[in-house]
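INFO  loader      accepted 1 record
INFO  loader      residues=140
INFO  predictor   begin
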Amino acid sequence: MTQTVRQLGRKKILILGAAAALLVLALVGGAVAYLVFRGEELTYQTQAAMRKALPVTAAAELHEHGVKLAEPLKCADLPGATQDELRVSCAGTTSDKKPVAVFGSGDRETAESHYTILVAGKPVVENAPCLGADCHGEEG
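INFO  predictor   done
INFO  writer      dumping tokens
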């Protein structure tokens, strides 16, 4: 090794070492940036968008579970909703007069959404990340 050191010279080795260190830092920095800013976004960017879409996606999800609604769900904003923390609830009844409650939430910071549907107080869907067509890659 001492012969290699002599051939390259200390200055060249220091330059190569610094370049290698910079390359490692760039790769690590890029990996961290990818993890932090990988472009994940909420399906619904606003409270109004979630409130508008939830009756349709929840009805489609209920249909997939064999539940028929008597009429479209009516949705409203939940207390505590903010620009970064979306909160919506919907209510309705099944064709056989059972109460339906739907709860949707979205967190802009984590880009996570959660949906729960109760029919007659029993969960049909619990903390699902999507409902209806949103689960099949279609936009809502």
